[in-house]
Amino acid sequence: MEQALRNQLYRTIVQCRELLEDDLTLQLEGTYGIHADGELEALDTLSHLDAVGRADRQAIESALHHEELSLRADETASVEEAADAKRKVGIERFLRESAFTFLNRLAALKLMEHPSRALIQQSVGAGTESKGFKQFSLLSPEAMRAQPDPSTGLGTGSGYRLYLELLFDDLGQALGVLFDRTLPASIVFPSQGCLQQVLALLNEPDLAPAWAEDETIGWIYQYFTPTELRELLRHESPVPRNSYELAVRNQFYTPDYVVAFLADNTLGRLWYEMRRGQTRLVEKCRYLIRRPVEVFLDPPDQFLPDECRDWVRQVRSGDFSHLPDDPTELELASISLAFNGYEVAERLGGYGDLLAWAGEQLERFEETGDLPPSSLDRWLIMFALQREWLIITGSGPAGEDFLEL
Prior knowledge:
This protein is mainly α and 405 residues long. The chain has helices at 3-30, 51-69, 79-113, 131-139, 141-145, 158-172, 176-179, 192-202, 216-224, 227-236, 243-249, 256-264, 267-274, 281-284, 306-316, 329-334, 341-348, 354-368, 375-387, 399-404. The termini are far apart. The model is unreliable at 391-398 (pLDDT under 50).
């Protein structure tokens, strides 16, 4: 995505966030008696709430309490002041999460309805004039009657809200994390005026090319978090203090070309070298770094002593019956080039934790001078101790006696 388009997207997301947060703040206060400064009006004083509204208020309180539990109290403040401060921050986070959730849903609908994907009918691209809503209105006259009359302005606008909520529920069967309306962040729905303003911003002609790009949702994820919030958290603590701060401070989108470069030069490079350059990945991995003259190591068998090359090949195939009765140290060490001791111990079973088992055998050797008679057991002990740097460095307790045996 070009920088100019990303700048336009950034400005749009910031405007949408501010509109949604302001609107949801007013609704949280006016409808549910929850004020931005942390004040909570008693539920029994909110006589305008019906049973559903009262249940929503209680669900919001539970969500706020959950947010408060993740916050550290100011040790210099009184218990009451600390509780008020935590509640205020909890409300801020709830509002931001609610705005973020709703904006992501609208953005997802914009991406899905784009002609290049056509996963759903147009639902938000033209607001209440969208093709999907018009068809819905034909099936549900009640929804159309709920829409404001252009001449009189009468109507609640709840018809379009109902359409979006049903669409969310339908999509939520496959994309539950994004469209799950049972989550507390879905309780407060933006007002009709706010929704129209947000859709007008998302439907700006200058922003149209963004909805054809798969990475747009990633940039929205990054641009939503206010820069000042991220800087404030970094100023307060050099490291994240909880999961919320970890998410906010690392809320950066990784462009697809960066991901492709990393994949091409890790997994792709490993396969390229294993195939000694003879692979179709040469054409498929666009970012694979290749040297003008590639040098590939010879197969491990080339480094094996002649006297053990044949039986090591048998061992590599899984046939351990060809292990010699009295292999030399060099022969045992050579098996490391053929296969992984951890995998062998796991496949054959009975060894449990290979390092712990090898340690027990070493202690037994120091006490009695005896080791298991099996060549495989002895090699596995050597393999494990080599991985622990107890033999290669000469610092192991067994010393020369073990190597000689």
